[in-house]
Amino acid sequence: MQQEVDFQRIAKAIHFLQENFKSQPTLGQIASHVYMSEAHFQRMFTAWAGTSPKKFLQYISINYAKSLLKENNIAETTFQLGLSSSSRLHELFINIEGMTPAEYKNEGSNLLISYAYYQSLFGTMLIASTSKGICHIAYADDNITAFDALQQRFPNATYLQQGNSMHENALSALNPQDKDIRQVKLHLKGTDFQLKVWEALLKIPMGNLSTYGAIASQIGNPKASRAVGTAVGSNPIAYLIPCHRVIQNSGIFGGYRWDPMRKTAMIGWETLHTAI
Predict the structure, then answer these.
(1) Which residues form the HTH araC/xylS-type domain (predicted)?
(2) Of the candidates 46, 160, 182, 188, which lies 20 to 30 Å from 224 by C-alpha distance?
(3) What is 1-99's CATH topology?
């Protein structure tokens, strides 16, 4: 689909900017790298990001990321007091329900999982749900690979390729510009530790960043940074549980299970649109 093609070009342009920012590439050089005319690329990038490619670079720089990390304590305090209006996710009530011990142990036996593919701002997504809530959201650069990953999480489940109202509601929440959001219920397979980490991720406001160490301290286990990193990396709900907002202390964005360039694009877009 065209939206997916456009996002792949944007991600490629962002990668080019990151790799070549010291030489200050021209608009023509960036456009040429993604095989587009200057005018067409400028229109497409501005329509997606809301700003020019060079301005966007500011929001994906290490220095800017470090400044966001310094502000994190203020943002977190604001959230804990219930005063933040900067993040849509704070206005959105996400209800996490862990699977029962039997559901966890049986790897999805007796679960009917409905799934479908949808277009989003940051690429195609696979959204899946049980009768209790959304159990899986992943970026799907390849539909078959994405479905295989879902099956690996619940190898004994029964699958039905069919959208439903839960998917549509989650899709609305996945659109950072959508204001008509209802409660999203998540039905997650995870250990108690993983669930605690994923709940902590929900407290990172849009336009802010955190670190693995900060998350570890927040859940009362400051020496568990490495274990937190593993739990963050196994997050089964892309974007809504914002593991993309966790970066290294150095300001380097680091890896992302759904492509580091997508993580960069997400951070840049969010910081830009909360700064406006």
Answers:
(1) 11-107
(2) 188
(3) Arc Repressor Mutant, subunit A (1.10.10)
Tokens matching residue 64: 């800017």
239 vs 71, which has greater pLDDT? Answer: 239
Domains 1-99 and 192-273 fall in the same CATH topology = yes
Tell me which of 13, 201, 243, 261 is the catalytic residue.
Answer: 243
With tokens 């704070």, the residue in question is: 90
Q: Is 243 a catalytic residue?
A: yes
Query: 154: exposed, middle or buried (C-beta count within 10 Å: 0-12, 13-18, 19+)?
Result: buried
pTM: 0.86
Question: How many angstroms separate the Cα of 255 from the Cα of each of 90, 108, 224, 243, 247?
Answer: 25, 29, 19, 11, 9
Strand blocks (E) in 11-104: 94-98
Tokens of 103: 């559901």
Structural Rg of the chain based on CA atoms = 19
- Residue 95's region, left for phi above 0, alpha for psi from -120 to 50, else beta, is beta
159-188 confidence digits (pLDDT tens): 999 999 999 989 888 876 665 666 789 999
